[in-house]
Amino acid sequence: MSEKKEYKVIGTRPIRHDGVDKVTGRALYGADFQTTGLLHGKVLRSRHAHARIKSIDTSRAEAHPDVKAVVTAADLPTAADKIADLGESAVNLKYLCDNILASDKALYTGHAVAALAASDPHTAEEALELIDVEYEVLPPVLEVREAMEDDAPLLHENLKTDAMGEKSEESSNVASHFQHKKGDIDTGFAEADVVIEHDFVTGTVHQGYIEPHNATALYNPDGQLTIWCSTQGAFAVRQQVSEILQIPVSKVKVVPMEIGGGFGGKISVYLEPVAALLSKKSGRPVKVLMNRAEVFEATGPTPASYIRVKMGVTNDGRITAAEGYLAFEAGAYPGSPVGAGAMCIFSPYNIPNGLIDGYDVVVNKPKSNAYRAPGATNAEFAAETVVDEICEKLGMDPLEFRILNGAEEGVSRIDGPVFPRIGCIEATEAAKEHPHYEAPLEGENRGRGVASGFWFNVGLKSSVAINVNPDGTISLVEGSTDIGGTRASIAMQAAEVLGIPAESVYPTVVDTNSVGYTDVTGGSRTAFATGYAAYEAAQDVKQQMTERAAKLWEVDAAEVQFADGDFVCVNGKDERMSFKELAARLDEVGGPVTGRASVDPTGVGGAFATHIVDVEVDPDTGKVEILRYTATQDAGKAVHPSYVEGQMQGGVTQGIGWALNEEYIYDKDGRMSNASFLDYRMPTCLDLPMIDTVIVEVPNPGHPYGVRGVGEVPIVPPPAAIANAIYRAIGVRMKELPMSPGRILKTMGKL
Amino acid sequence: MPKKVHVQTTINGETVEFLCEPRQSLLEVLRDELGMTGAKEGCNNGNCGACSVILDGRLVNSCIVLGVETEGKTVETVEGLAEPGKLHPIQEIFLEDAALQCGICTPGFIVATKALLDKNPNPTEYEVRYWLAGNLCRCTGYDKIVRAVLDSAQIMSSEVGA
Ligand code: FES
Ligand code: FES
User: Using CB atoms and an 8 Å cut-off, which of residues 335-364 of chain A contact chain B?
Assistant: First the structure.
C-alpha cells in the first residue's frame, strides 16, 4: 500500500450532518424524550458498601396515592427461573440481574435495591423514603490487594477462582487469574545488562460523560416493550434487557436517542430494565434519569489497579525481557478490563521474552466498566514509566529507544497475535521530528516527558442500508449511535464510492427494528466497521445502478463502467450519465434502488500513539501545569480529519485528568466522598493549553480506505508522559495515579 | 404538593407565563413545563454549565436559579439564537470548526460564548478559557471550542465593522 490514493471525499472536512440540530438545541437526547402519560421513576440505593438485605418492605410506598408502581429484585425473573443447565452463564446472569436490583446483598454504596414510579420526579424521590430496607451491615473490602488476602471479607460466598481454566476449591474474591507467555523469561532477564522493576497503583476513575444515564420504557399490554435511551449500542441494550427480563429480543425495540458521551460507560444497562418493570406494573411509560451522584456511585467506572512491571535491556538498548503483574478491581461483580490491559501493556515493543499475569478481583465498589482503551491506560502507565527509567539509565533518547525496539509488521505480542502492517514506529518518528521535541524548555521545575500507547481496536458487526433518492442523493440507514461525528465519517465512505458529495448523503441512526444488527459504538470500531458496511452497501448500489444503466442503454451490464462519478458505456456507444442523472431515471428501469450490507470485518488495524508533554511543577503546592502538549497517532486514513483531531484532543484531555486529578475517594466505610463534578475534578478549559495533533497515515490493509480506529488510544500515553515529565522537572518518579498535588508533595518528602 | 406559583417572564423576546412549584429550578421549568429542552442537565448543582442561559444579561446556570426568580426578567436560551433560515454566527462557527462531538455541552457553550462576546467582543485566549471554565466538555479537550470562540469573535466584530 505504498502509493498514496487520491480521494474526493475521504480526507475532507464537511459540516457534520447532525450539526444544525446540535447547535440549535433541537437534537433530542434521552432525557429530552416526552410522551403522553409519562411517569417518573427513581431508584433507592444502598448507603452501605457491603450488606446483607434482610428484608424490603414496600407497602408504605405502595400506599402513597401518587406512587404508581414499586419494584424490587423480586420482580425480576430469578436465575432459578432459567433453564437449570445454563451453568456458567446462569451465574453471569445472576450477576447481571443483581447489579440492576440487588437481591440478597448490596455490594457497593449506590447499589440499586428498589425503584418506584410516580407522577413527577420530586414526588418519586420523596417517596423513596417510604421503602423500608433492613440491612445486616458487613465489613467492606475496598482495595484490590486487600481483597486478594485470604482473610478478606468475601463478596460472593460461592465465587471460585478460575485459575487458567481450573476452578479453585475455596471461595475467593479473585474471580480469575490468567497468564500470557512468550519466549523464555529467565533467559531474557539473564541476557539483560540493566533490569528495572517497580510497582504502580492507579485509582478508580469515571468516564465523566456530561449526560447522565437515562431510560424511558413503555411496556404495552401485548407484551411489546419499547425503550428510548442514550446508549452506545441499541442492540446491546436489546440483548441485555431481553436476558434480564427473560423475554425474546423480538419483543424489545430500542430507540437510540442522541447520546451525550459514553466512552465505554454507556454499554451496560442500569435503568432500562428497571424502567421496563415499572412500566409493566403501572401500565404507563416511565422515564428514569440518574442524577450526577448516581452516575458516579452506581454506573461503571474504570477500575483501580495494582501493577508490577519488570523490564530487562542490554547496554545497547535492546529489550530482552518484560514481565507484568496486573491486578484489577472488577468492582462488585467479575469482569474488569484486566484482559485488555494485559494485551496492551508491552505492545508498542518488540519483546522476545515475556510473561504477563492478570487477576480479576471483586471489591465493594461499583461493577467496573470500559473506559476508552479499557485497561490499557493503567497498564501502559506502568510500562512506559519503566521504559523512561531504562532510557535514563542507558543515557538513551527515549524516542530513539522506542524506535529501536518498536513493534512492526510480523512481530508477535506477548499475548500471541502477530501484528499486520502497523504505524507504531511511524507515529514515534513523527513525534521525534515534531518541533516540540527539540524546542527549548527553560525555567525551573519544568520538564518534558514522552510516552507511547497501543490499543488493539475491534471490528465486530455492522449493518447499513442505502436508499437512492430521485434527486441523486442517498439516505443512509445505520445502527451505530453517533457519539462524536460518525454520521459524517460513515456517510463520507459511501459518498466516496458513489462519487457524490458528502452533503448528498442523509444518514439516520435508527431503532433496532429498522436496521440490521449492529454492535456498539465502542472499541474504536465505528468509522472502521460501520464505515466498511457503508462502503459495501454503496458498492451494492453501484452494482445495481450499473445494471440499470445497462438496461436504459440496452447493453450488457458488463459493458457499463462507473468512473469518476459517471456511468459510462464502454462498447463504443457514446453514453454517459452521472449518478444523479441515473437516479432520476430509475423508475424507467425497474423502480427504486436499495443497497445493503452487513459486515463483520476482521482486518482490524491496531492504533499507536506517541505523546510529548511539557509540565511545570509548583514545588510548594505540588500542582502540575501542562504547558504544551503534542500527540501523534497513526489513523490509517483519517476520514474526517477534524473529528480525528477531536478524538485525539479529547482522549489526551481525559488522560490528563486521569493523570493529575481524577479519582474516586472513599471513606473507610466505602462511601464515595467526591461524587460531584466539583469534587471529582475533571479538566476545564482553563487547565489546558491547545493540544497539538499530528495525524500519521499508515493505511490499514484490512479496510478499503485504510481506516484504523482512532478514538481510544489517545487516552493511553498521557499519564506516563506526564509522570516522565514530572521526573525531569523535579527529579521524583511518580508511581501512583492520580499525581495530585498531595501525592506529589508526599513523594517529594514534603508531606 | 406545594401550591404552584404564576410567573410571567420574557423568554427569547416573547412573553411567557407558566405555573411552577416554588422548588422547581429554571432548568426544570424550561425543560419540563415549557418543553424547551435545549438547555441540558449535566449535574443539577451548578458545576457543569450544560444548562447555561442568560438571565437579564447575565450568564447563569439555570439549574441553580429558581423558576419563580424569573418573574419580570428576561431569559435568553439556545433556542433563541438562530434567525429564520440563518444560524447565529457562533453556531455557524462551532460547526465549521468541529467544536462539538457528542454535542450535549454545546448549547451551554454556545450560550456562554454569546454572553462573553456580548460583554467582551475581542477576548484573548486566556479570557476565553477563564470565562468558559464553568462549562465542562468531556469530549473535545476544548481546543476546537476555544478556537471556535476566538473565530466567532473575529467574524462577528468584522461583521459589525463592515
Ligand atoms: S446542570 Fe446546571 S450546571 Fe450542571
Ligand atoms: S461534545 Fe461531548 S461533552 Fe462536549
Answer: none
Q: State the average pLDDT over residues A348-359.
A: 98
Residues A194-209, mean pLDDT to the nearest whole number: 98
Query: DSSP labels for A179-248?
Result: EEEES-HHHHHHT-SEEEEEEEEE--B----SSPPEEEEEE-TTS-EEEEE--S-HHHHHHHHHHHHT--
- CB atoms B100 and A645 under 8 Å: no
**B81–chain A Cβ distance below 8 A for any pair:** yes
Closest Cβ–Cβ partner in A263, A647, A686 for B130: A686
Which one of B104, B134, B144 has the shortest CB-CB distance to A210?
A: B104
Among B24, B29, B102, B136, the strongest candidate for a mutation testing the A interface, having the largest count of A CBs within 10 A, is: B102
pLDDT (0 to 100) of residue A183: 98
Q: Is the CB of B136 under 6 A from ligand 1?
A: no
Check A484 against B102: CB less than 8 A apart: yes
Any chain B CB within 8 A of the CB of A682?
Answer: yes
With cut-offs at 50, 70 and 90, classify the pLDDT of residue A1: very low
DSSP A269-322: -SSHHHHHHHHHHHSS-EEEE--HHHHHHHS-PBPPEEEEEEEEE-TTS-EEEE
User: Of the bound ligands, which one is closest to the alpha carbon of residue B104?
Assistant: 2
Give me the mean pLDDT over the A550-567 stretch. 95
Mutate to test the interface with B, among A503, A630, A648, A685 (most CBs of B within 10 A): A685
Is A135 in contact with A52 (CB distance < 8 Å)?
yes
A216 Cβ neighbours under 8 A, 6+ residues apart: A30, A33, A35, A38, A227, A228, A229, A275, A285, A286, A287, A288
> What are residue A329's DSSP bridge partners?
A361
Residue A126 sits at the chain B interface (C-beta within 8 Å): no
- All domains of chain A in start order, with CATH: 19-26+466-599 (3.30.365.10), 36-138+213-260+266-298 (3.90.1170.50), 305-457+604-747 (3.30.365.10)
Probe target for ligand 1 pocket from B45, B54, B135, with the most ligand atoms within 8 Å of CB: B45
Rg value, chain A, Cα: 27
| Burial status of residue A664 (CB atoms within 10 A of its CB: 0-12, 13-18, 19 or more) | buried
Find the residue in A nearest to B91 (Cα).
A23
The pLDDT of A602-615, averaged and rounded, is 96
pLDDT in tens, A491-530: 999 999 999 999 999 999 999 999 999 999 999 999 999 9
Q: Per the CB < 8 Å rule, is B47 touching A261?
A: no
CA distance A287 to A42: 9
Confidence grade of residue A82 (pLDDT, cut at 50, 70, 90)? low
Q: Which three cell numbers stand for residue A15?
A: 459540516
Q: To 5 degrees, how large is the angle CA A588–CA A589–CA A592? A: 90
pLDDT at A436: 98
| Ligand 2 nearest atom to the CA of residue A209, by list position | 3
Complex ipTM value: 0.98
Three-state secondary structure along A597-618?
Answer: EEECCCCCCCEEEEEEEEEEEC
Distant-in-sequence, close-in-space partners of B80: CB < 8 Å, separation ≥ 6: B11, B12, B13
Q: Å from B14 to nearest chain A CA?
A: 18
- Domains, chain B: 5-80 (3.10.20.30), 89-161 (1.10.150.120)
Alpha carbon of residue A666 to chain centroid: 25
Q: What is the pLDDT of residue A88?
A: 59
Regions of chain B with pLDDT less than 70: 1, 161-162
Q: For residue A488, what are the contacts with CB-CB under 8 A and spacing of at least 6?
A: A14, A16, A17, A502, A507, A640, A643
Mean pLDDT confidence for A467-483: 97
Cα distance between residue A373 and residue A380, in whole Å: 11
